[in-house]
Write a structure and sequence with these properties.
104 residues; mainly beta; five-stranded mixed beta sheet; four-stranded antiparallel beta sheet
């Protein structure tokens, strides 16, 4: 059977974002894998689009989409999401402050 080159692959999220919890000043990376290579994605934090000029490193390698931030601060915590075509995945980043261990 010959499969024509123009068969469109349906986009699916293969590996969704996962919730993360880190300490302040640590780096984090959200990774999302989709079923199609080299499709455009958009990243959001608390519903607002983020970009490299906001201090994030955004990269797409084949089907894998990454969002990285170095030296996270408490205010970097929130709900992150990625939109790829009509699909979306979201996860929560919790950043724990370095000086909040006095709750005993």
């Amino acid at each position: 059977m010959i499969i024509p080159d123009f068969v469109e692959v349906t986009l699916k999220i293969v590996k969704p974002l996962k919730d993360e919890e880190i300490e302040e000043d640590q780096s984090f990376k959200f990774t999302c894998e989709v079923s199609k290579a080299n499709v455009k994605s958009r990243w959001f934090k608390d519903g607002k689009a983020v970009s490299e000029k906001d201090g994030y490193h955004i990269e797409t390698i084949n089907t894998v989409h990454n969002l990285t931030l170095d030296n996270a601060m408490v205010e970097d915590g929130g709900k992150y999401s990625i939109k790829v075509e009509d699909k979306e995945s979201q996860a929560t980043l919790t950043v724990k402050g370095a000086n909040h261990s006095h709750d005993k």
